[in-house]
Amino acid sequence: MPTRQCPNGHLTRDGSALFCPMCGAPMSGQSAGAPPPPPQKKRSRGGCVLLGILGGIFLLFVYVASQGGSSTSGSRARATATMSPELVKRQAQSIAYDSLARDTESYVGNIVHYRGKVVQVQESGSRAVLRVNVTNDDGWWEDTVWVNYSGPRLLEDDIISLWGRVRGRRTYTAVLGNSITIPELDALIVER
After folding, report:
1. Distance, C-alpha 48 to centroid of its chain
2. Which residues contact 45 (CB under 8 A, 6 or more apart)?
3. Angle at CA 122, nearest 5°, toward 108 and 128?
4. Going residue by residue through the chain (192 aa), what tens digit of pLDDT does each one get?
5. CB of 4 within 8 A of CB of 14?
6. Residue 72: C-alpha distances to residues 69, 168, 190 (Å)
């Protein structure tokens, strides 16, 4: 009785079988006495490890890029996966800048609302860091907050309405080499 062999080396005596009853692979027309098919090349473990590492780095990049809230401009504004823009705006507090700067830790996690002037934009792909002055004193804007932002491009001197979640304080080095510490927000909604 003729036997047939699958590519994985399993034999069957059923000459009419199209698929191997052991592994499900398509059966070849070779008999058991015929030479086995040439072995398939195996992927090196190094290549698989490298692919795994690159995949992990990509996932880490996506995770880091997604942190800090999200924002868009105008009527297409979105808040978070669980909060609508309307809910974000209802929950937002108007906190005086002096209170936010002095007692930042007591406001961490709270949603705040400011209207301000963008004084600096640092872009990195689709994300940006904004420095926004949120106090208007007769046309002169002062009192700066750090804003982690992702959305349509903003430019210096844009006047925006900002709803954001207080993250804490951010210290950075100014051009003259001095350290500056200001409140840090993750933008939830930004409207021009």
Report:
1. 25
2. none
3. 55
4. 567 777 777 777 766 777 777 777 777 654 445 555 555 555 556 666 767 777 667 666 555 555 543 333 333 334 455 789 999 999 999 999 999 999 999 999 999 999 999 999 999 988 999 999 999 999 899 999 999 999 999 999 999 999 999 999 999 998 899 999 999 999 999 999
5. yes
6. 11, 22, 6
